[in-house]
Task: inverse folding
């Protein structure tokens, strides 16, 4: 065999081995370690003990956004359309924070089972549309809410 | 108010000027820097090659390599 | 293909093509900037910040594309020991690092107003930061040895090992929960971007491709000339020694 051909085979084999090894490692370690947040369903199935810091991701439930009586604490529910968790947050919400939009909250559960967030991050979806188009669609009644769900569910999205 | 003119509104970027303009600025600066660096290196090596063809040294008075950093 | 792989022929071809490429790059940047800043609408959710996408996304694409080219050049350098492949690899890493830096910086400036943070350690952002370090590592390794060939070989091996990071970057948003949103263009059911925003993005992408090509050819030409300068100096030095001896 020519030396060049040998080097080619050697390189292809080592790259294939490296790729396989990386793939095995990535699929073997718990994907929760790499994932940036957990879903409301996950924390409902396996409750997180109060006080432990977690990130919770989902959609801001429609008609759930309000404030506590102190007038400074935001209250809303984060949902993955199967389960939802009530979140309390004192602070400034990001510009993209909206009902029906994706959100990631970092904080911990208190003893009453409510999630107290120290940080609220908005997650935006992969849909880009001009504001005028959306306005026209809404006026003609053809606009469908919930497109943002794809942002949370990724490839298993519920996009029609 | 700035936003009263069309140009003012363009500059204001709907209140996001402090993010949109730096994003374009940093893109322009980094691309310009990488291009300028390549251009300066080419000019330097061209000059060194010419010098070498002329007097056969290819080095400046201090004997430094002019192939790279000669601006 | 092999005809262009001859360094002398490459040199002549690059010299002839480069002025045209520079003009085209400038023109497409002008068109891209016009579409991105003036002739496109604000987004229904993100408002004017969507304009950051028109530089952020092409820069990220070029950062990945340059790394793919770096991997190919490194492979052919190791297998066929072709001088042009070495030179291409050496020219690619600073350009790729620049694009990665642009993607990271503009992404940060986009993240602050939309997400509420400049940076998070999610899978997409972290793997992209790793890409930046791979480029820097490649540049450092090339200069790390007195023996040029050893530097080239170790840099090529690093570049090839780093190739596994490319699919991780691409699919991180599908495999794991990330703050970064999934792909909008390369979707099974077609892009989820309105045409009025897709066109500025594609025009900018053309401009960024042309810039990559122009900068690459310019740098490769310079590196070839530097090699010729070294060879000529060496020849002259040896001639002088022969005279004295």
Result:
């Amino acid at each position: 065999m020519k030396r060049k051909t040998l080097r080619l085979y050697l390189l292809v084999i080592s790259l294939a081995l490296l790729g396989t090894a990386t793939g095995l490692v990535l699929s073997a370690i718990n994907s929760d370690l790499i994932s940036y947040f957990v879903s409301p369903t996950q924390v409902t199935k396996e409750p997180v003990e109060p006080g432990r810091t977690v990130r919770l991701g989902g959609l801001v439930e429609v008609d759930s956004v309000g404030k506590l009586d102190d007038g400074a604490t935001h209250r809303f529910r984060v949902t993955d359309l199967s389960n939802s968790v009530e979140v309390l947050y004192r602070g400034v919400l990001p510009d993209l924070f909206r009902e029906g939009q994706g959100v990631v909250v970092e904080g911990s559960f208190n003893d009453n089972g409510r999630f107290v967030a120290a940080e609220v991050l908005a997650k935006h979806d992969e849909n880009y549309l001009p504001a005028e188009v959306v306005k026209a669609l809404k006026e003609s009644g053809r606009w469908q809410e919930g497109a943002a769900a794809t942002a949370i569910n990724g490839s298993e999205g519920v996009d029609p | 108010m700035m936003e009263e003119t069309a140009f003012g509104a363009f500059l204001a970027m709907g209140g996001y000027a402090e993010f949109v303009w730096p994003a374009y600025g940093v893109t322009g600066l980094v691309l310009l820097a990488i291009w300028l660096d390549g251009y300066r290196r080419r000019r330097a090596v061209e000059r060194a090659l010419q010098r070498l063809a002329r007097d056969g040294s290819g080095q400046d008075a201090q004997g430094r390599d002019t192939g790279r950093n000669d601006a | 293909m092999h005809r262009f792989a001859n360094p002398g022929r490459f040199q002549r071809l690059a010299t002839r093509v480069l002025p045209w490429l520079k003009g085209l790059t400038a023109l497409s940047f002008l068109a891209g900037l016009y579409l991105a800043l003036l002739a496109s609408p604000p987004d229904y959710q993100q408002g004017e910040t969507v304009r950051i996408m028109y530089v952020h996304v092409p820069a990220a694409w070029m950062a990945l594309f340059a790394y793919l080219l770096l991997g190919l050049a490194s492979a052919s350098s190791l297998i066929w020991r072709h001088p042009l492949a070495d030179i291409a690899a050496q020219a690619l890493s600073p350009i790729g690092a620049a694009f990665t830096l642009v993607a990271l910086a503009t992404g940060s400036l986009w993240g602050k107003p939309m997400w509420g943070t400049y940076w998070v350690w999610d899978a997409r952002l972290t793997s992209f930061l790793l890409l930046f370090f791979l480029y820097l590592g490649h540049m450092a390794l090339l200069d790390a040895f007195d023996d040029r060939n050893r530097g080239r070989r170790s840099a090529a091996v690093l570049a090839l090992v780093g190739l596994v990071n490319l699919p991780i970057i691409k699919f991180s948003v599908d495999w794991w929960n990330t703050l970064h949103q999934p792909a909008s263009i390369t979707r099974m059911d077609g892009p989820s971007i309105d045409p009025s925003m897709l066109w500025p993005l594609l025009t900018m992408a053309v401009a960024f491709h042309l810039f990559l090509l122009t900068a690459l050819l310019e740098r490769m030409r310079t590196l070839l000339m530097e090699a010729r300068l070294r060879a000529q100096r060496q020849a002259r030095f040896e001639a002088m020694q022969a005279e004295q001896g």
Q: What stands out?
A: Confidence is low (pLDDT under 50) at residues 67-71 of chain B.
